[in-house]
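Curious: can you check?
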Amino acid sequence: MDEETIWGRNPVMEALRAGRPCNKILIARGSRGGLGDLISRAQREGIPVQYVPRSVLNRLTQGANHQGVAASLSPKKYVPVDDILAQAAALGEDPLVVVLAGWEDPQNLGAIIRSAEAAGVHGLIIPRHRAAPLTGTVENVSAGALEHMPVSRVGNISQTLNRLKKEGFWVAGADMTGELLYYQADLTGPLALVIGGEDKGLGRLTKTCDFLVRIPMKGKIASLNAATAGSILVFEVLRQRLQAAKKGRRGG
């Protein structure tokens, strides 16, 4: 693809802030309030702004809640895994990557990207095949977080995990059969958190994981939405790391 369309005020503004090459911005005629900063920024950067009937945006976004704005820009670029590790090193932090195995729903992908970015995840790894790509829908659901989240696409998840293990990572898999409750596991070191797709789980990847964690369930529903489960887990990692840092400042 030479370009893609994203929509919504936050996603478009975050794309501009991140310096993503933008070809043009479309504004629905009659849109009120909240677009002044976005329009001013686009004009400063020489990005054409076109005012069109709202029906044009409705058709372009297939009826999504576009909030009166859409942008045509270059596709989000995938990065090498090494770039993700380098970012963590530059921050002086133990690397945390989330590995998504078989996620084919763009809504779920966008949701976990939003949570992962908020929790300080350094990057995501997805398979090259049988996985949702980074589309405008993913960008919109992530509320702009995709602009700040490096994503690597690899040919073989197992090989990538084995490589990370050789570089000092622990690999934790999220699975309903996990031997540890998620808050019992030590998630403070270099970590690759592997989360299976909506209906398929981890499959053979369980053999690659160093340990499996599970979220306790008490109700009648046997499992959580993949993005919801992933959000719980990444914020548990953040909690543990903040707690460990606090203890370190106190001298243990």
About this structure: The radius of gyration is 20 Å. Residues 4-73 form a domain with the 60s Ribosomal Protein L30; Chain: A; fold (CATH 3.30.1330.30).
